[in-house]
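For the sake of clarity, the format in which proteins appear in this thesis is described at this point. The record quoted next illustrates the convention:

___
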Amino acid sequence: MAAEQADQSQARTAEQPESVENVDNVERFEVTRAIAAPATRIFGLLCDPNGHVAIDSSGMLQSADGEAVRAAGDSFVVHMDREALNDRPMGRYDVTVEITRFEQDTLIEWTPTHPDFQPSINHRFGYRLRPTASGTEVTSYYDWSRIHERYRAAGIFPILQESALRATLGILARTVEATA
């Protein structure tokens, strides 16, 4: 009975989004989805710069240049179009995606940087993967708790909504499950 309740609890956790809240406001979104594909396949796509473009639900990521990342400190360039969000008149620009955390087939995290954004914004995006009997539990997160005060005062965060993370997980599932 206890094992069955634990399994049901884990199933609910995999299906329901989590938001981590600060006392005053939300500074991190997390959403989790069960995906019927092995962690190695999912992680491979997340390490590929073009994989980020392929699964982006915001429409901002247009294309990417660079090699697949293999460690913290690796980077690649993403060509962006802010008109997709229609929130700020930034048009087209490039960001360098700098990998901040990397654990093979388990965790990948990055921060986008741009030479005009000084001091660095320091918001983070990432994925945690946990193998399951039927595939992989994938958690996508967006964390702006460490942004510089200059950007916090501007009141522009979060840039993406929690629903964008959930939609990206849907595109990720469709992409990797199709090749299963």
Observations:
- Residues 58 and 85 are 7 Å apart (CA to CA).
- The helical segments are 2-15, 39-47, 49-55, 149-154, 162-178.
- Residues 1-24 have pLDDT under 50 and may be disordered.
- The longest strand covers residues 92-103.
